Amino acid sequence: MCGREPSGGRVTSNRDVYVVIAAHNEGRVIRTTVIPLVERGYSVVVVDDASSDDTERQLEGLPVSVLRHGINLGQGAALQSGMQFALRRGARYIVHFDADGQHRVSDIDALLAPLRSGQADVALGSRFLRAEDRAAVPARRRLLLRGGVVVNGLLTGLWLSDAHNGLRALTAQAASRIELRENRFAHASEILNQIRRARLRHVEVPTAIVYTAYSMEKGQSSLNAVKIVIDLLLRRIFR
Amino acid sequence: MRPVQFVLILLLLGVLMLYFSRLRSGLLDRVVVLLFGLLGIAMVVAPDWTNGVAHLVGVGRGVDLFFYLAIVGFAFAGLVLYSKVRDLELQITKLVRIVAIDRARQPDAIQVPEERDGP
Q1: Prediction pTM value
Q2: Which of A23, A27, A167, A180 could be disulfide-bonded to A80 (CB atoms 3.0-4.6 Å)?
């Protein structure tokens, strides 16, 4: 698919693409995740969500912006901070990218294509659009995600194939109309809600998830899914 | 006076004193809390009159009526607290975010002066 382009005009054209990474205690992997993004010329914003490990030190010497939350707020809050920062720096496109290395850098171009052509305002990654991506998802997770699709659909009115995919791309204009107030993981559903309310045009784009031992270990447990639903329900009641 | 009445009155007075000494609140709040405190003491000192009130709304004993109201009251208090906590969380989030953005480590040496958020 996307081979590595020779350096040239291509690289500078990624400058206005801000890849926002929320990181909480990702010291073991953050550098490995960030370097390929830097190599492709993306502007990288890492939001260190009050990590207690060496996440911030791991980024030393890399040409990336680092924001640090003084106290741990959660992934949703970190993404919001990163987006706000990116918008101020003149971002044209904003990409949400997980810190644990489960997304493929080469998928970003595919996400940006519908935004660049003006066909959509938001592109959402999905691991359920291509047979080979689907096959890579562990069976138990597949079941959980299927449940998530239904919950999301009922709560947000947006029926997508992948309920909790952290890989997304937004135009600056779309990002400026989204304000994540759900600090923890429920932001993934909240963002769908806001996409629908702001009448942003969205597409799903096939992307792969690389399930590593690390991402599985750090990834969300089934119990977390229950917490997310409770968060969302309370949110519905309390605005 | 039965021992339980003595204990309850002491506890009620304790709560009232804590409220008035520790919490700053508006005049209206203070008056309402004082009235409820006095009402509580009256119910402890002379419980019988509450039965009359309970009969009016179809409850057998004053204690039961009070129990039902207390459950609803606690649920209400819980919800109010929950939404206050949420508000607080939002405010802290905004604060932490402003600090994080202001102190961001930039990739390049040339730092463009950032615009600050409005008041």
Answers
A1: 0.79
A2: A180
Domains of chain A: 9-238 (3.90.550.10)
Residues 6+ apart with CB under 8 A from A83: A20, A94, A170, A175, A178, A180
pLDDT, tens digit only, all 239 positions of chain A = 444 444 444 444 899 999 999 999 999 999 999 999 999 999 999 999 999 999 999 999 999 999 999 999 999 999 999 999 999 999 999 999 999 989 999 999 999 999 999 999 999 999 889 888 888 888 878 888 888 888 888 888 888 888 788 999 999 999 999 999 887 778 888 888 899 989 999 999 999 888 877 766 666 566 677 777 777 777 666 65
What distance in Å separates residue A46's CA from the closest CA in chain B?
A: 10
Contact across the interface for A69 and B96, Cβ inside 8 Å = yes
How many other C-beta atoms can be found within 10 angstroms of the C-beta atom of residue A204? 19
Cα separation, A233 vs A228, in Å, equals: 9
Contact A229, A151 (CB under 8 A): yes
Say if the Cβ atoms of A73 and B107 lie within 8 Å. no
Tell if the CB–CB gap between A238 and B106 is shorter than 8 Å: no
- Minimum distance, in Å, between the CA of residue A87 and any CA atom of chain B: 11
Query: Which residues of chain A approach chain B closer than 8 Å at the C-beta?
Result: 43-44, 47, 62-71, 73, 77, 80-81, 84-85, 88-89, 181, 183, 234, 238
List Cα–Cα distances, A42 to A48, A60, A231, in angstroms.
18, 17, 33
